[in-house]
Amino acid sequence: MSAPAIPAPELAQVRPATQAAADDEAPGAHRGGWFVRISVVIIVLLWLIPTMGVLFTSFRPENLVDSSGWWTALAHPFRAAEWTLENYRLALSRGGLGNAFLNSLAVTIPSTVIPITIAAFAAYAFSWMEFKGRYVMFVVVVGLLVVPIQMTLIPLLRLFANGATIGRLIVFPDLDLNGSFLGIWLAHAGFGLPLAIYLLRSYIGSLPSSIIESAKIDGADHFTIFWRLVVPLSVPALAAFAIFQFLWVWNDLLVAYVFLGGTRETMVLPIALAGLVGERGETWHLLTAAAFISMILPLIVFFSLQKYFVRGLTAGSVKG
To answer: Of the residues 149, 196, 218, 250, which has the maximum number of CB atoms within 10 A of its CB?
Structure first.
């Protein structure tokens, strides 16, 4: 029994697909794939070389750091004289990194949770609640993204120190927030809210409308829809912004120095690292050890949430 004949139009469609598959299996395609892989490996190595240099330097004695390059340690990797943990001990004790690490935690965690919480409610309101002026308000929020942080520091300092009044009406009370953790939490929350609302609104607005409408038909109010449906579905976007906000606040020097100061009781890790540099950069061996101490927690946060990172950034970019 002979096979059924394929009509001419369908045969014309099959041939290009077959030819494309054959082209993919051609030797040139494999060479192109290997070229991409080799290029990626080279780029990764170029990025890793400075990091490996800092890592090796953090474990080398001060006299060897001052007299030879870090790559010389590779010639005798198992020689005990080439390695030491003294740099980490001195960085923690002399540089005050232990207290600075706790201060950074006390600043970063609330400064990440507060804007995410507020922005999630705002993003839901901008996406699924009907009220007058919501588009104008959203444009104003997005416009705040272009305002430099440096322009807001002095007004915020005056607001936290003296409050704000219009005539006899008290707009913002005098709470004396300068030098307090509450003050820097509010400052970081204000600086992070525009980006958070923009990202979360793009994601929450791209959720299927049928889910929201079905919940409304079943009698769910806005808070129930937000808490039971929107928040679980928005975990990728929330995690993506959490990474951004956490890394920004953890590595921030300017805002922390302005609102907390540089005293030993309130300084955060970036200020402590700047103090370790010294006037002439003579404590390079301690600075490299302190740098890796400060990198531990951000690396844990990033690798814990990385599976949501790309999904959270790309979701909502194409709707429909």
So the answer is: 196
